[in-house]
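Ticket #4471: structure export looks truncated?
Reporter: QA, pipeline team
Priority: medium

Steps to reproduce: submit the single chain below to the structure queue and open the exported record.
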Amino acid sequence: MIYALIPLLPLTAFLILGLAGRHINARAHLVAVPAVLLSLALSVGAFVEVASGSVISLPLYTWLTSGTLDIHIGLHIDRLTAVMLLLVTGVSSLVHVYTIGYMHRDPGYARFFGYIALFTFSMLMLVLADNLLQLFVFWEAVGLCSYLLIGHWYERASACAAATKAFLVNRVGDFGFMLGLLLAWYSFGSLNYLDIFPALHEATDVTMNLLGPFGGTWEVSVFTLIALLLFTGAVGKSAQVPLHVWLPDAMEGPTPISALIHAATMVTAGVFMVARLAPIYNLSPTAMSVVAITGAVTMVLGATIALTQTDIKRVVAYSTVSQLGYMIMACGLGAYASGMYHLLTHGAFKALLFLGCGSVIIALHHEQDMRHMGGLKDKLPITYWTFVVGSLALAGFPLTAGFFSKDDILVSAWSSGDLGRALTLLGLLTALLTAFYSFRLVFVTFWGTSHVDPHHAEHLHEPSRTITTPLIILAVLSILTGYLGIPSFLEPIFSTGGQPAVPHGSDGLMIMAAATAMGLIGMAAAYYMYVLNPDLPERLARQWGSLYRGSLNKWYVDEAYDCLFVRPTLAAASKLWKHVDVHVIDGTVNGIARAITWGGWLLRLVQSGQTQHYALAMAVGIVVLTAYLLL
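Actual output as written to the record:
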């Protein structure tokens, strides 16, 4: 039962800070940081215990029992969960320490620590869940926490808008997830993993007739429908096309939460969910193809947008969208272990890049526009060199963690059939684009002529150790996580389905060589354009104006949504308000008021206060009553 403390420690920190945070505001880290560090220590213990192949199952309490439905809160720790525990608690611990330096003057210091502790608890309960309903409850909890943290600086209109956007977009995906959960319960009679997964081998697939969008009916397998409905939740949480639009706007939140969302919590939940439910996805080739193609499209789209962004955090944010596409594509091709491998290595180097961006932003007094940077590598040496390590890992440079995990995805994809080979080519193209924008970010921010505000340039210095120490640790992890043998460690979890581990034969070596070449070409192109010929990007932007504007404006997806959904919804709401609220609701209320007013006026006529009028009324009443009785 000691492993139940892994999520309970961050929850306890949240409760303490929620109740007493106002009184210990400046010392809030003394509550939150030890709690998450202890969770990390316990997670290491759980990892060691399950490494031998054992599974830890901890039923905590029964939540709901009704007929065949038995829902309980329980913890399930196998190798997949153990890897996620290390990722979540490891990155969260470093983010907590980093937050001490980054947020120490913020008036909402204790509130921020309380929310990231709650965020950590929610994500831990999500990965520890042993049933679909518990997973869904904490799936929603991480969405709530992201809303609270993105909107931490709620006095800014842009932060409130970004938080609302993230919340609403995710509700679209989560509605599909909820339908998938209900259909799974209807089909299998249980929501517990240990009941559903064994039953899949004996279950008979059923075809359902669904009404098509243009009339007629579609025949859809129940397994396919369950898998696709659940996947809509992953599309929202892991920012896949077409629900990717919320993630870059989430940069309005403080940098520590950007790192936590992108590296270890919310956006990784979708990839984890698909991997956890691999037995369901393996039964539907159609659903697997949809997952793989969605990931591939997202992978390319995110990379093309990152090429032109000028906000330092948005470049890294669109990089996350692209890299999540790699992971989802791998899962869709059955290479679940490869996708999870990249999720783990990405957690290290993406947290490093976001926290490195935060170090630059703090040094430049909250400047985020790369055009107002440059020449920082000598002023911020620790930030610079750790940032280079993170960029090398993101670009897949040989011997870094990103090199091993990205190539593992591409080799597995190439070996998975015709669709996999086509998507591998897109992956190689994305590798070139990734290396280019990664080192565009390095060269524009840290090299060349300084464009820093002269007033700030005089006072540039490396931030505090609470900021630089996590950067150094993450830089080391951005190398070492590639050597941990994660694919072979996870393969037994997925051995009953999906693609087996692919040995690196001649085709594998060819793909690895091609991916490395693409990365080196992208890095060289960035060096040529932003160091040797710094005027070239502007000339190319003018020459290829339409493509440049499309990329800079995120291919106008937000504008399309505004035209297709936002404006019609607001217009319909306006009409609904006028017709229903004004005419029906207000009309009914006001009509009742007028009827009472008129009734009172009529009754007032018989209350004259003159005795003769009352006597006359009584006489008339007696005559009428007598006539009624006689007749």
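Status: closed, not a bug. The export was complete when the record was re-opened. Leaving a note from the reviewer for reference: Residues 497-502 have pLDDT under 50 and may be disordered.
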